């Protein structure tokens, strides 16, 4: 799983030229495609709902954009369409989930529900996952505990290595993201969703599909020069956030989400962009923290609201129009897209129409 909305909260891309599709229509299309490759109707509906939720929240690199790739991997035998997702080990405040190589969205929904149920009893629950697949944006799962007045924390091993160790050239690490969602009262929740690289690889892929260049600072070539053409992404690697500190975070998150769970890490990570036949054994972690276990929920939410307002109303540098908080970009995207539909850029629409023709299903 990758990350989309960074702590900086990038403004939502200008998608005025894109056609707008109602969320329900997009969901129905994804369901049809998944059923056509052998996924059961109820499970296809669950996956479609989560994929569209990513698009609604503005995580364009992790929603319907990924559908052709998911279908290719299912057809290539890399994903189990009838998984037996189960708890392999557990104690009061933890569980290890074996996803049986099912679609990541199904595995992670199962794991998150398990974490929430356990946290209701134990106060905090840490659920590790192995034998999963790409599951969309990190914030999707970190946000699920919010509905239960809980804080959610999510880590994952990314589905391709695009990051060498600091100072090195061998691709041994991924974008290994973190997401944290904290409930508020009258204010929108704080939702931090970030890769340990300056940009998630999904953003590089969307830039390539749209024929756009990347900003300097996203990638570097093997001679250490800036790389800005996303079509040349294979000639270089992603850069970590904060230099060597980002490398350290990518390593540690990978140990927690991958190695600890018996999931792939380092050389074992399969590049799911290039390989349609090998299971990825993707690892994730979801932690649910019950606010009530620490203090009255209303008191906590009131304090979070106060902090949000203090930050938003604090003194600004010259030329800064407003101070943003993590999650604001997604919140704005959600309001716009639920009302006006999800923007579908022409190249993406073309690839989905081609997919519909291949699968012999009704197009969008």
Walkthrough of the structure:
This protein has helices at 23-36, 41-56, 67-75, 104-122, 138-142, 201-210, 244-257, 297-312, 328-340, 346-359; strands at 19-21, 86-91, 94-98, 124-132, 150-156, 178-182, 190-194, 219-221, 226-227, 236-238, 282-290, 342-344. The chain has 364 residues and is an alpha+beta fold. It has a seven-stranded mixed sheet with strand order 2-3-4-11-5-6-7, sandwiched between helices. The protein has a three-stranded antiparallel sheet with strand order 9-8-10, with no helix packed on it. Helix 1 (23-36) packs across helix 2. It is globular. The two termini are 26 Å apart. The model is unreliable at 1-16 (pLDDT under 50).
Q: Would you kindly provide a brief summary of this structure?
A:
By secondary structure, the chain is α+β, with helices and mostly antiparallel strands. It is built from ten helices and twelve strands.
